[in-house]
C-alpha cells in the first residue's frame, strides 16, 4: 500500500466491511489480526503514531475540562447569588469566605477533631507502652482496650453505657446458647433487627421508664446519642455471632488456594481476607474479647467495619501489611483531602441549597449541579471520616478494609459504585447477609432484602426506603444485562469495540439513574420526584437531560481509559 493512501484503504475492502478480506477461492475470510489493525490503526500524515484510542482520549479530556469549567463557574455564581438566603453559613478562615457547615455530620466531626485526636493519641500511647512493657498478646490487650474504650464511652454516652452493656450481654448469651442450632441465623437476625428498631423507635430509652428511682440518670446521658452509634455495634454483634457459629461448623479456609492468588500472603504477610476467613481458637471467643471488639475506641463511632476473626487475630499479632512510613503517608494524604473539602465548603454551598427549598427556584441545570455537588461532598466527607478512624486503627495494629478505595467519579455501574462506597459495609453485607441468603443464585431477590436492610440500618425514614427501592429498581436491569452479555464472547475487534460503546451508553444511563435516586434520598426528597420529572420534561429540561447523558457517556469512556491504563501498568 502506498503512503499517500487514506486510512480507510490500509486494509483491502470487501462488500461486507473493512474487517473482512478476500481469501482463497474468493471466499470472505475474517482476519483477526487485520481487523485489529484497522480498528486500532494510526492515520497517515500528522496523525502517525496515534491510535484512535489516543485521539478519543484527547477529545474526552477536552470535553471533561469544559464540563467541569461550566460546573465550577455556575456553582460559584449560585453560591454568590444566594448566600444571603442560605442557612448555616458561618464566617470561614479562607479568603474571607463564608463556610457551609450545614451538614450536621461534618459539622460535629470537624468541631470535635482536636479533642478526638488528643484522646486517641493518648489511648494509642498507653496501649503501645503496656504491650511493650508486659509483652501482652490478644488476651491482655483485650483487657487494656476494653478499659480504654469504656472510659471513652462513658464520656460519650454517660449512664447510657448501661443500656449498651445490657444489650450486648443479651446478644452474647443468644449466640452462645443457639450457635449450634439449625435456626441460628433466624434467631440472630430477629434479635438484632428487633433491637435496632426498638432503639430507634424509643430514641435510646429513658431511665425513668424503668422506675422513678432510676430517673436521675437521665440527667447524665453524655454528649452523644448512644443509639446512633449502636448501628455499628449491631453489625459487630452479628459478625461475632456468625464467626462463632461457623467456627463450630469447622468450615476450613482453603489457604493454599488463596496464597496462589494473593501476593501479600505469598510474601509472608497476612491479608485481610485470610484473617477474616480463618477462625480463631475457640478459647478466643470470650466475653472480654467480644466486648473489646464491639467497643474498640478507634472504630466505635463510624468504623470501618471489621469481622471478629480479623480483629481478634490482629489484636494478638498486630498488622504488618502497612509500614510506619506508609501510615505516615496515609495521614499526610488525609490532611490534603481535609483542605480540599475545606476549600469546597468555602466556595460551593451545595449542602445549604439541599437543606432549604431554594432549589425549587432554580433551572434544571442548576438542580443537577447541586445534586452532583452534594454527591461529591458526601463522598469526600465520608472518605475523611472513615480514613481518619482507619488511620488510628492502623497505628494501633488493626488493619480494616478501606471504605473508599475508588473515586466516586470513577464508577460507571451500580455494582462497582456500591463495592467502592462504604466498602467495608459492602464486604460485611456479602459475608453475613448476601451469601447466607443464597448468593448469586438468588441475586434478583437478594438485592431487595439487602438494600431494605441498609435503609433501615441507616435510619427509619421514608426517603431512605425510597432511595433503597429506587436503587434496586435501577440495579435489576443492570444485573440482567450483565448476565446476558457474559453469555456472549467477543469474537473479533469490532465486537469488542461495539461492546465498549454499548457499555459506555449503559454506564451513562446507570449514572443518571444513580443521580435520580440520590436526589430523591438526599436533596429533594421522594415527595418532590414528580415535580422534578415534570420540570425535566419541559423544553429546557429535555436539553439538560441530553447534556447530562452525553457528559456521563464521556465520563464512562474516560473510566474505561483509566481502567485500561491500570491494566497496562500491571502487565509491565
Characterise this structure.
Its main location: membrane. It comes from Anthurium amnicola. This is Putative membrane-bound O-acyltransferase C24H6.01c. The chain crosses the membrane at residues 57-76, 113-131, 143-170, 182-202, 223-242, 287-306, 327-349, 369-389, 502-524, 544-562. One of its GO terms (cellular component) is membrane. The structure is a single chain. By secondary structure, the chain is mainly alpha-helical. The protein has four domains: 7-50, no CATH class; 54-136 and 322-404, no CATH class; 138-246 and 285-303, no CATH class; 441-572, no CATH class. The chain contains 23 helices and four strands. The protein has a two-stranded antiparallel sheet with strand order 1-2. It has a two-stranded antiparallel sheet with strand order 3-4. Helix 3 packs parallel to helix 16 (364-395) and helix 4 crosses helix 13 (308-316). It is globular, with a radius of gyration of 27 Å. It starts with 19 loop residues before the first strand and ends with a helix. Residues 1-32 and 35-48 have low confidence and may be disordered.
